[in-house]
User: What shape does this take?
Amino acid sequence: MKIKQSIVAFALAAVIMPFAAFANTHAVLQSANNDLHDKDSLQRGAKYFINYCMGCHSLKFSRYNRVAADLGLSDEEVKENFIFTHDKKGDKTKVGELMENSLDPDAAAKWFGTLPPDLSLVGRSRGPDWIFTYLNSFYKDDSRPFGVNNTVFPSVGMPHVLAKLQGMQVLEEAHHGNKEGEEGGEAHHAAPKLVLKASGTMSSEAYRNMTRDITNFLAYVGEPAATHRKAYGIWVLLFLGIFFVFAYLLKKEYWKDVH
Assistant: This one.
């Protein structure tokens, strides 16, 4: 009996803990409004990810040639614009290989405290809204090792690699004072908000569009078949509908002499 209770308790904990951990971020997610059918956005997102993110974060479950085919790019375009790594022999990575980086695990552990995670499945595990909000939620925090923090991922252990483009935000909390008719007591506060104090090379709108493109690309990488899955579902339903008609007519023909 105790074993059964332990199994039930463990199962409940496994279900509840991820939601509890997510809830502890206290962040309101912004809508990414991404479109997996927008190939121009996916191409831009791939370019931005490889230029700014792939030095630390790999996509080891994806291959360059699969991404090229889905994004409407030729192998030559991928070689020229997406591949900057080399194999152990010093030869340039081939288009059929996995999208891994050259970051040394021991060096990464020394610099960041741990190896930066692979982001192949972050689009499915976190969702596009989380990624988009995360990329737009860095703010200055001198208490952190890299001088920044994040409202979606508190005490994040990575630098704000897009700070040159976005600029630097600060976390501000508005004070509204006491309620009417009250004397003394604690002041009431508004929810903390991020304010851009130092501008980057991009406007706020251009930066949000760029992070939306990166989000779109990571959502695609997390489930490449998503762009085709709905179409497959429609064809399956059509097939079942047509099959049902023939099955019904066959049933009537088979049972007409019985009744």
DSSP finds ten helices and eight strands in the chain. The two ends are 55 Å apart (CA to CA). The domain at 2-248 is CATH 1.10.760.10 (Cytochrome Bc1 Complex; Chain D, domain 2). Residues 4-25 have pLDDT under 50 and may be disordered.
